[in-house]
Structure formats: C-alpha cells, structure tokens
Write a structure and sequence with these properties.
Layout lengths: L28 H12 L6 E5 L6 H14 L23 H7 L6 E4 L15 H4 L1 H7 L8 E6 L6 H12 L5 E7 L7 H5 L2 E4 L5 H10 L7 H7 L3 H10 L1 H12 L7 H9 L7 H24 L9 H8 L3 H23 L4 H16 L4
Parallel strand pairs: 1-4, 1-5, 2-3, 3-4
Helix pairs in contact: 9-10, 11-13, 12-16, 13-15, 15-16
Length: about 375
C-alpha cells in the first residue's frame, strides 16, 4: 500500500491556504448575518446547506462557523447568560482556533473524498466515509457536547453516502450541526435539501475580490483575472497559476484574424497542451475555450460586456452580431464540451482536440462574418 500521508487535501485549492487556515471571509456578510441571527434567537437549525459557485468562500465559511460553534460558551442554565455574540469571529489564539488549525479538535468531523490504496483521489464520497458519523456522534464531547460536521462537498456523495447522510439529518443528536458544502445543490436529494437551511454565497466583486485574492497570495492581479473568474477566488488562482490571462489573450488574437485564422498560431496553442506535464494547461485551455464561446453567445443577446483583454469586445460584437449567432455559438459550446469530455475519457491527443475546437469555431464564425 502506498504512503498516503503526503497527498494533497481534496478540499484545498492548489497554491492557496486551506480553508481552516484562512483568517478572513470577504463579501459574504449576508450569509454570516443570517447564521448569527439564527444562533442568537435560539433557532439554530441542525442542517445548513452552504451553496454557491466554486471558489467564493463556502469552505472558509464552513470552517468559520465550526470555530464559532465550538468556541461558544456552553449554556449552563444559569440566571446570568453571556451577552449574545455580535459576530462569528473567533480569535486566532483561542484554543479552539489552535486545535482546528492543527486538525485536533474532537468536536469536528470533516467528511470529504478519500484516496484509494494507490494514491488516486476517488471521484465520490462513499458510504464508508459517511459511516464515520455514527462513531463520531457516539463519542462523549467536552463542554456542552456540541458537535460539528463539515461535508465538503455534499454534491460529491454517491447514492449510498447520500442516504446515510439523510438518516443523520432526520435523526440528529442534540447539539449537532451539519454544514453541507455544495457547488451544485440541485444534485442533492430533495429530502436532503428540505432538511437544511440554505446559505447561498454570491460571487465576489470589487474590493472584496481584491482582498480575498491578496489573502490567498495572488499578487499579480489584473482586470483579466477579475472578469474571467466571475468573482471566484478559486478560479482566479487557477488562472493566475496556469497563465490563464495569456491563454485567453491568445484565443482573442487568434480569432481576430477571421474569416481565416492564423494556422501556425493555432497549431502552437494546440501543441502547448500536449505532452507529459501539460495536463493542467490542457484543462485550462478547454475551460477558457468554453468560457470564450459562452461569452460569445451572451454577447449575441446582450451585447459585449466588460472586456477581459483588449480587443475582446470588438471581436465578440463582430462574431456574434445577433440572437441567431448567439444560439449557434451556444450549441457549438455544448457540442465541443461533450467532445472534450469524451476526449478526456478516451485519452484523445490533446493537441488534436484543441486544434479541432479552433477549426470548428472558425467554420461556425464564417456564417456571421
């Protein structure tokens, strides 16, 4: 069996601090206020569904809530109650904060995808992972017996794991709070969603986005990252690490040559995705190509929005002048997305796949030029 101790955590964005080590949550004041109001009013629900786009702070919020709940003074039934908290903040030097950073607080259980014995990250949370709940809830707890569970991400559960979680939501022990993180809550069982109170997080914008990126250690910030990431710090980190701004600029320059593109430039882009060690770049090119087509389709309906790179707005207006073009490029995005997923599954040559996507987009665009 392989040594699995040094494998990356599946709930941590590469290059960014783990959510348990992220001190500040930016731009999600409404969700924080809703949880605090429920707590101070004595109507704290046992199940919370924290949902929203990837990379906007869902896991950071879950860990913040866990710190808050585990650090809250127990209700001793005395005549003099502690004053109600004014925020969800917990001091970094609080014993609970220190224990959570060290992964050593017995009041918290984190359920996430695991690795197999060959060191490969599993694609789903399995029922074996969810069965940890039974033992966790059966242990004695300190203080008032409060227990917190974070499931990251709940929409990655297989059906058996989902049913096991549903049972815990239907029969929660006293002082237990389950925090379910979901990127696509529609994938969850309706019965799970109905037993949780929802906290929906929004994409970040303006100064909140800038501060969150700085906290994550991204110093090279520009308008391209802000526009292409859609307010997702996680997406912005991936773009910054993989040279996403440069790749997207290359796509714009490539199609500015329409009705005929620069074939050598197209081939160079395709070949940059091939070969061992370029898997991340290949994935990023596919992601940005899909985003380009999505922005094209949107421009055909609403007109070009803010530019991600210089010259983009003029190109989108030329390629997608009306609703007909918008529908055409939306359909193309769906076809090419399906082809990309199939190509990954059967190990299709990355260079051939990228070049084919470029040529199909060129052919589609000629009908509107």
């Amino acid at each position: 069996m392989s040594d699995l101790t040094d494998l990356p955590l599946p709930d941590q964005i590469d290059g960014a601090p783990h959510p348990r080590e992220t001190p500040c949550l930016y731009g999600q004041g409404a969700a924080e206020a809703a949880f605090l109001q429920a707590y101070t009013s004595g109507r704290l629900h046992h199940g919370w569904l924290i949902c929203g786009p990837r990379g906007v702070g869902k896991a950071t919020l879950a860990w913040k809530l866990a710190r808050f709940l585990l650090a809250a003074p127990p209700d001793d039934g005395g005549m003099v109650a502690a004053p109600p908290p004014q925020s969800l903040d917990t001091a970094e030097d609080h014993p609970v904060s220190r224990r959570l950073r060290a992964g050593a607080d017995g009041g918290l259980l984190v359920i996430r995808r695991g690795y197999d014995d060959k060191g490969r990250l599993r694609q789903v949370i399995r029922v074996d992972d969810m069965r940890k709940l039974h033992g966790f809830f059966g242990l004695s707890a300190a203080g008032d017996g409060r227990r917190v569970v974070i499931v990251d991400a709940a929409d990655e559960m297989n059906p058996n794991a989902a049913n096991a979680l549903l049972k815990a939501l239907e029969e929660p022990p006293a002082h237990a709070t389950l925090l379910l993180i979901a990127h696509q809550p529609s994938r969850l069982l309706p019965t799970i969603r109905s037993r949780c109170r929802e906290l929906r997080l929004a994409p970040l914008a303006g100064n909140d986005f800038t501060l969150a990126l700085e906290q994550a250690g991204v110093s090279d910030q520009n308008a391209t990252l802000a526009e292409l990431s859609g307010g997702s710090v996680g997406a912005a980190i991936a773009l910054a690490q993989g040279g996403g701004a440069e790749i997207y600029a290359t796509l714009i320059q490539l199609f500015q040559g329409l009705p005929r593109i620069d074939r050598p430039r197209a081939l160079a882009l395709a070949e940059s995705a091939a070969g061992r060690g370029n898997e991340a770049r290949f994935d990023l090119i596919l992601t940005l190509f899909d985003l380009f087509l999505t922005r094209l389709a949107r421009a055909g309906i609403l007109g070009p929005g803010p530019e991600a790179v210089p010259g983009e707005a003029a190109l989108l207006a030329r390629m997608a002048p009306d609703n007909g073009a918008a529908r055409s490029f939306a359909a193309l995005a769906e076809r090419l997305g399906a082809r990309a997923r199939h190509g990954r599954a059967v190990n299709l040559d990355p260079a051939a796949l990228v070049l084919d996507m470029v040529l199909q987009t060129e052919a589609e665009a000629r009908a509107f030029l």
